[in-house]
Amino acid sequence: MELLFLMDPLERVAPDKDTTYALMRAFQARGHSLWFAESRDLSLVGGSPFVVARQVEVRPAPAIFAWLSEPVLREVSAFPVVWLRTDPPFDEAYLEATWILDRVDRSRCLVVNDPTGVRGANEKLYALCFPELCPPTLVSSNRRLVRRFVEEHGEAVLKPPNGHAGSGILFAQAGMRGLDALIEVATAGGSRTEAQAYLPEAKEGDKRILLLDGEPLGAILRVHGPGEERNNLHLGGTAERTALDEADWRIVRTVAPKLRADGLVFVGLDVIGGKLTEVNVTSPTGIQEIEALDGPGACARVVEWTERRAQR
User: Fold this and answer.
1) N or C: which terminus of the chain carries fewer CB neighbours within 10 A?
2) Is 222 tagged catalytic?
């Protein structure tokens, strides 16, 4: 089976950490052929999506990949499976890519995650489809409302709704010096900020739960490094072994039906203290850390699911 991976340049891949690379390696090990393209390589030709793609082989370090073909123009629907794994930001170019992929013939080609679902699922705000699962949250550009929220809850995390990888996160406390200036930064130019009540459990880390078609593949606890409040692994955080507790299972059981309905198959839930904080749908990571801590098996499950669901 031929699989097309729409992703960022392979030269940027960290082979021991990157989830997309791990999936490509697993598919290749099962005898499937891999094709690579960037989202900018997509075009509409007479209303049909086409892509300039190259066949690729992933290899052990240091030569982590090798091209097996020259760039070829192909109809996207000719690939039984397309993995949309371009990293955020979700900007105009990303939006255009989802519009093009909307035109894929779904009777011939499976796109993971569904472009319509990805476009409709802001990674910060989608969690608020389930407000009962989330910490107290305000999304606003009104500085008075944001200040009142901070004062009401004592401490809050301010996030740009379109932020990614921990960028733009600010920590606000009632009574702190410069609170108004901090809120001005968070809402500069009339931008909205997502203010969430600070969860003390964040000091112990946040839990990344990877889901496949609404079922957990595994989880890791991401713990921030020295001098850093954010738990992102690329910011010096470390992954620790963890297990799903009853609060986590409640979250999974609640969100899974909507994820399936929206075509969001491969998803990362961020959970702190039993509260859902984000739903990652563009290119969620963590599968290599899960396998390193819990043993192999997660990638194989993704491959087997894809083989069952492929149109041909």
Assistant:
1) C
2) yes
Active site residue 142: no
Helix (H) or strand (E) holding 300: helix 298-309
Check if 275 is active-site: no
262: annotated active-site residue = no
- CATH 3.30.1490.20, applies to 136-198: yes
Match 């009853």 to its residue by tokens: 246
- Which residue of the set 18, 25, 113, 124 is catalytic? 124
pLDDT tens, position by position, 36-45:
999 999 999 9
Q: Which of 290, 105, 59 is nearest to 302 (CA)?
A: 290
Q: Is 304 a catalytic residue?
A: no
**Contact status, residue 274 vs residue 282, Cβ threshold 8 Å:** no
Clarify whether 280 is annotated catalytic: yes
230 included as an active-site residue: yes
CATH 3.30.470.20 intervals, the chain: 202-301
Structure tokens given for 263: 């075509």
Q: Tell me the per-residue pLDDT of 155-182, one tens digit each, with 9 for 90 and over.
A: 999 999 988 777 889 999 999 999 999 9
Catalytic residue among 85, 222, 275, 291: 222
**pLDDT for residue 81:** 98
User: What does the mean pLDDT of the chain come to?
Assistant: 94
Query: Catalytic residue among 206, 208, 232, 289, which?
Result: 208
- Fold topology of 2-120: Rossmann fold (3.40.50)
| pLDDT for res 164 | 78
Could you say which residues of the chain have pLDDT below 70? 225-236, 311-312
Catalytic, out of 230, 232, 289, 291: 230
Active site (annotated) includes residue 105: no
pTM, full prediction = 0.93
Distance CA 301, CA 285 (A): 16
